[in-house]
Amino acid sequence: MATLVNDSILKNDAAGPVPVSGGLGTDSYYNHSFFQKIAANVAKDMIDEAITKKLDVKSLLSSSNTIRLADLGCAVGPNTFDAMQNIIDVIKLKCQTHLPTSPVPEFQVFFNDQPANDFNTLFKSIPPTREYFAAAVPGSFYGRLFPDSSLHVVYSSYALHWLSKVPEGLEDKNSPAWNKGRIHHASAAEEVRRAYAVQWANDLSNFLNARAREIVPGGIIVIITHSIPDGMEYSELANGMMYNCMASILLDIAKRGLISEEQVDAFNLPTYAAPPGEFVSVVENNEYFKMVTMGESNPSPWLTDDVHVDMNEFVNHIRAAMEGTFNKHFAREIVNEMFERLEVKLSEISVEMESAYKDKIQAFYVLQRNYSG
């Protein structure tokens, strides 16, 4: 039986993944998050349909004329603004259709990310003509963030693949999950992958239990995330190839004496792309939510025989999202060299990389809070 998170987890600012690169500069996430936007838009129509069919606006507005949304893992924009406005447009249309004589509801949007996130940039760039009241909520979404029954729609895009911490055993020489010479479970032993899977499942369970307190009965969670077909090896995917290249570059730098191999062994990326079977299993073991709809897609449908990946732009996107995590462990000059060499390495295997952008490596899930429990 699932256990609802108690209020003590309001103190949830423990160390976790490092936020994306802030600011509005040329190397910022704000200017290098277009690929994520394209990927999220692939699932837009199906998510809109699920909200239209399943969100009971009459019930939600029976006690208040305000609809409250939260984007968990919002980063610094601009993608979060588009996503929130799209959901608001869908809800407004449903209200106009089903409640034509009722006043248009007001909307409040909570933008959540880690305390170190660049909320200043987020709110400097927020659309001045927005149709909602906005607020920031810093903290880990693996714990409580909001009062009981205060949210109607929760959205999270490309955030839940980040783990709350590095899985146990990866940095322990005496553990069967010791991940020597690697920075991820791609191409690693099965014990390493299993450690990642266990940590991810625990995190998702905590996420759902926290939301069960915060979302009203009938409320909805929309999740868009990295995925992988059940049974496929992560090393077959473009990201798996990239993580192996990163590890290879760091080991080359270690051979030159600029860092030690022990430093490489002690670094593991806290990110896991769960296959649908694992996601569904966690939801089924949680008594507070039911699966409304789910689907898998290709996050890069724009790649064709005539359109190819710009490796410079691809690495800029990766760097904007992950540089802080590397900077936390390695000196800045080491990180700079790694990303500079990464572009060269990935260009050498660009054909393999592009062929690895497979269908079903992005998943979307829409969950609904049960009316009982």
How does the SSE layout of this entry go?
Layout lengths: L33 H9 L1 H11 L2 H4 L5 E7 L6 H20 L7 E8 L5 H6 L8 E6 L12 E7 L32 H25 E12 L11 H18 L5 H5 L10 H9 L4 E9 L13 H17 L4 H17 L1 H6 L6 E8 L4
Parallel strand pairs: 1-2, 1-4, 2-3, 4-5
Antiparallel strand pairs: 5-7, 6-7
Unreliable spans are: 5-15
Give the SSE string.
Answer: HHHEHEHEEHEHHHEHHHE
Rg, Å, rounded: 21 Å
Content of β-strand: 15-25%
Structural class: alpha/beta
User: Overall mean pLDDT score?
Assistant: 87
Helix content: 25-40%
- How does the overall form come out from the CA principal axes? globular
Number of helices: 12
Q: Count the strands? A: 7
Distance between the termini: 11 Å
Largest sheet: 7 strands, mixed
- The strand line-up of the biggest sheet is 3-2-1-4-5-7-6
Protein name: Probable S-adenosylmethionine-dependent methyltransferase At5g37970
Pfam families: Methyltransf_7
Keywords: Magnesium, Metal-binding, Methyltransferase, Transferase
InterPro entries: MeTrfase_7, MeTrfase_capping, SAM-dependent_MTases_sf
Structure characterization notes:
It contains 12 helices and 7 strands. It has 373 residues and is an alpha/beta fold. A 7-stranded mixed beta sheet has the order 3-2-1-4-5-7-6, sandwiched between helices. Strand 2, helix 5 and strand 3 form a beta-alpha-beta unit. Helix 6 packs across helix 9, helix 7 (238-255) crosses helix 11 and helix 10 (311-327) runs antiparallel to helix 11. The longest helix has 25 residues, at 190-214.
